[in-house]
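User: I'm putting together a teaching handout on how sequence relates to shape, and I'd like one worked example. Could you take Phage holin family protein from Sporichthya brevicatena, show the sequence you're using, and then write out its predicted structure as tokens right after it?

Assistant: Happy to. First the sequence, then the structure tokens directly below it.
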Amino acid sequence: MTQMSTHRRSDPADMSMGELVSSLSEQTSRLVRDEIKLATKELQAKGKHAGLGAGMFGGAGVVALYGVGALVAAAIGGLALAMDVWAAALIVAAVLFAVAAVLGLTGKKQVKQAVPPAPEQAMAGVKSDIETVKEHARR
């Protein structure tokens, strides 16, 4: 009986069938773990962008609500008082709506970066790995 060597042979041509299958199993497991890690990191980054964008949309809504309040105050001030009060309230409302617009557009940009929520880079890596394995199998 021959005793199996405990060291790995680097040339696949010198490896036994059992060693080749073992090596394939080990490399496949490592590849799957690495692809899962990549997909996890990618989904975490996309989730962060989605959360940030949603928070900015919420902020835009709050600021727009204040803008509506300022417009109401401007209308009341315009009817009840002299021109100066409602003009000032109108200016404040315009500034608040401008802030809301900036927050809304920035939030939209953040949400757009998070969509689609699929791990595209990881999927591309897996497809590339499959093509490489298929090509080597054909040889």
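A couple of points you could highlight for students: Residues 64 and 97 are 6 Å apart (CA to CA). Residues 17-80 form the longest helix (64 residues).
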